[in-house]
Write a structure and sequence with these properties.
Distance between the termini: 14 Å
Order of helices and strands: HEHEHHEHEHEEEHEHEHEHHH
Bound molecules: 1,3-dihydroxyacetonephosphate
Strand order of the largest sheet: 1-2-3-4-5-8-9-10
Number of helices: 12
């Protein structure tokens, strides 16, 4: 059974570790992440962007697949199925489709409109037992064609949004999606500290988990980050392992072209990446 992310993130906040949100793209991704979480006895959040949802033919397909897979694999650790960077319409669609958690990303609206739409969605999500994440200060980088500027969120605005009854808050602190450029200045811990102090100990979310050095991850957790999103890093490790398989000519040997063989190294690579992150985030044995 899927659960909302509220309890697992409160536990993470109080226990000073973070739960990973790993984005899924297909069956292999989902299976790799679920099996790793179970092996490590870790809670896990499966993230689905609107683009990935569309790719998998819709949120209903995703919810049905994840729900059935949790059951078929005998997964007993807490699993939340979460909409990543949802629009207002997308958030409503996921509530209907059977997700257990949503993110409404109103960071590109005026603060007044972000407040109004978040307020409405908090009520709707909570009436159906889902958790809800909101965002202040857009995260930089590109995701599904949307390029954010990598803002540092205003603590006052974070306070406003966090008081609306949301369960966890994403606040920009210089983090960006995708690979970090060589001249990246790192996370803004001063800003994170101010945001943490202004938001009544609400679990904070760090987006753009790919490529953030381990010491910065640990410091962010010590300053209130309880959920860390990772997407690109699984894609990179999947692609590298698949490339290696093909470049070694293995798809040309025997039945190496069989998708169950062709995709196996990439599948194992995702598992290894997820394991590494869960160990770094401290969520192992916290199910
Ligand atoms: P990365 O792709 O940089 O890991 O970011 C993932 C993310 O924040 C999803 O919301």
């Amino acid at each position: 059974m899927l659960v909302s992310a509220t309890e697992m993130l409160k536990k993470a906040r109080d226990g000073h570790y973070a739960v990973g949100q790993f984005n899924i793209n297909n069956l292999e991704w989902t299976k790799a992440i679920l099996l790793t979480a179970q092996e490590l006895n870790s809670p896990v959040i499966l993230g689905v962007s609107e683009g990935a949802g569309k790719y998998m033919t819709g949120f209903k397909t995703v919810a049905a697949m994840v729900d059935a897979m949790v059951d078929s694999l005998g997964i007993t650790v807490p699993v939340a199925l979460h909409l990543d960077h949802g629009s207002y319409e997308g958030a409503k669609a996921c509530i209907e489709a059977g997700f257990s958690s949503i993110m409404f990303d109103g960071s590109h609206y005026s603060i007044e409109e972000n407040v109004a739409k978040t307020t409405e969605l908090v009520e709707l999500a909570h009436s159906k037992g889902l958790s809800i994440e909101a965002e202040v200060g857009s995260i930089g980088g590109e995701e599904d064609g949307v390029v954010g500027a990598g803002e540092v969120a205003d603590p006052e605005e974070c306070h406003k949004i966090s008081s609306l009854g949301i369960d966890f808050l994403a606040a920009g602190i210089g983090n960006i999606h995708g690979k970090y450029p060589a001249n990246w200045k790192g996370l803004d811990f001063e800003a994170l500290d101010k945001i943490h102090n202004a938001t009544d100990n609400i679990p904070l979310v760090l987006h753009g988990g790919t490529g953030i050095p381990a010491d910065m991850i640990k410091k962010a957790i010590s300053l209130g980050v309880s959920k860390i999103n990772v997407n690109t890093e699984c894609q990179l490790s999947f692609a590298a392992a698949t490339r290696e398989y093909v470049e070694a000519g293995k798809d040309l040997q025997g039945k190496g072209f069989d998708p169950r063989k062709l995709l196996a190294p990439g599948f194992e690579a995702i598992k290894a990446t997820v394991k590494e992150k869960m160990e770094l985030f401290g969520s192992v044995n916290k199910a």
